[in-house]
Design brief:
Alpha-lytic protease prodomain-like; Alpha-Beta Plaits; 8 helices; alpha+beta; four-stranded mixed sheet
Amino acid sequence: MQTPQKIAFGSIVIGIVVLLMKYVAYWVTGSVALLSDAMESIVNVATAVAALFAIRVAAKPADENHHYGHHKAELMSAAIEGALIIVAALAILWQAYLAFITPRLIEDAGLGLTINIAAGLINGIWCFVLIRAGRKYRSPALYAEGKHLLSDVISSLGVTIGVVCAVYFSLPWLDPVLAILVALNILWSGWQIIRASLHGLMDEAMSEADLEKIRLIIAENGAGAVQAHDLRTRHDGHVQYIDFHLIVPGDMTVSASHELCDRIESAIIAQFPHANPQIHVEPEEKAKRDAIEIQAEHAS
């Protein structure tokens, strides 16, 4: 099992442990705010399962039915995670509405909050593990899960402070208000995850900073070429597809142009290890304006 898959499996185990702890905290206190915290943990477990499945599918090599691999599985998983998060938020809003109609007294707040704080600490440590791993392995599924878990940690902290205030100042209405705030935070988190995954599914280009790096790499490693143009990029999970047209002198041999392309591709991959560059070689008469000019000091 590869490292991203091990991390995803660890998320399932930790999610179940935290879910049980938070539900016990709710069961002890009867707080609808703590219930909302526990319900969010149900989503954490569901998304962890979805992330593991997506990462395993995305790791499969290309086959005769998927010539470019299975990388988009992670983006689809992130979109599903976002949808599940929104469903959980709506369920929390319903529970908060019921609590407004029939206010509940919070009991054994000390024990319940202690359990909830412990669960929040576990989540806090694990969310940073996920975010770091998501960036390191360029895994949208792990990164999305980590960002959601971070929002869970923040909302858990707010819930804890709010429940303390509700008990100390005898404000029963504060409990469902906290649940509503948690739900709104979860809704925002879900929307952010869905939006990010949709950008990937819609083949969003790499950032302008990365595009500038690619242009510079082409200019510095294209000795022998005239220019390059029509640079295009897109994301597919953790893979970046980069393609452009390379203009070479009309008398350049096929072997020389192939060697030139190999040199540029190697330089791109050295900077972007998960890149898949594709270069289309064209003769001088295909040159365009506003192209990537090869640096004069490296040109032949």
